[in-house]
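Sample pair:
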Amino acid sequence: MTIKAIAPQLRTTDMAATIAFYTEMLGFSIAFNYQDFYVGITVGNQMLHLKHIDETDPSIRFVDLGGHLHLYFDVEDVTSFADQLKAKGVHLVKEVHETDWNTREIVLYDDQGHTLYFGEQL
């Protein structure tokens, strides 16, 4: 068996707002949209799935309280990306910072409150 890709799934109570966040703010693209219930979002060769639900994703609170994350994106030039996000009005939960594990990272929440990390190796 060869795994060609892994697609994590995030849950949303407002599909239109979540699509807008990932496409307009982060610059991702829609790969597919199944009845506004299940949507594939791509960036480069990577994909994540969005699923509409009626209640707030319970993992949001768990991740927030535990200092965890939902998604980690390995990027180039996180500082420039942070500047682009801020110019679009995206609030960074944690500004560009260097870590003890030799990365430079930013942290933000998506429109639903999922914790997203963007980082690069130093």
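The mean pLDDT is 96.
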